[in-house]
Amino acid sequence: MTAARLRPYREYRELPPAEMLARAREFRLDIARRRTVRHFDGRPVPLALIAECLAAAGNAPSGANQQPWHFAVVSDPETKRRLREAAQAQERAFYGGRAPAEWLAALAPLGTNADKPFLETAPFLIAIFARRWEELPNGERRHHYYVNESVGIATGLLIAALHRAGLVTLTHTPSPMGFLGELLGRPAAERAFLLLVTGYPAPGVEVPDIQRRRLAEIADLDGRPFPEHTVEP
Description:
9 strands, five-stranded antiparallel sheet
């Protein structure tokens, strides 16, 4: 195997520590405003905005730089209608007996159900696919590695980019999701990973009054709870 050609890393910009901390805090406070929204306004969103966010997500790190993701963007009303019908069929089965009682109990406070009108209301749906392999020009398959990890990172960057751009999102994961590949004509090498709904929030939209875990509950420092005083209120 030929080693990758190396070049100087010219893009890195070192910042003064105070500016680094200010940037980190600004991002933390901004991303803390992000909430999952289930009611969308039908107002159009510029396609260029979606394109910029997708391009940002495409810079995510990936195993062996194989970039095993595909973002299928849907704006066509008829395609959105068909996706909603297929998704709701799976959701009715989920809520009607497929899901364990414990799972349904966990979802109950959020008020979710089998009806998914946002799949037609939102201006854009982004079906995210994980590409398990690709076919080379000689007909052989090149398998990809760390696929779920790589696609998950890219999805997180996309959600953050859309939020920073001023849109809201909803991560929708009907199970099973095989209908996404079928309806959108994706190849067998790709497996549906997640359906991301994005647009403007509906006027007067409400979200569940929930809290995030404290830093000391999600991180530790040298085996001890992470010191809370390192994060400003």
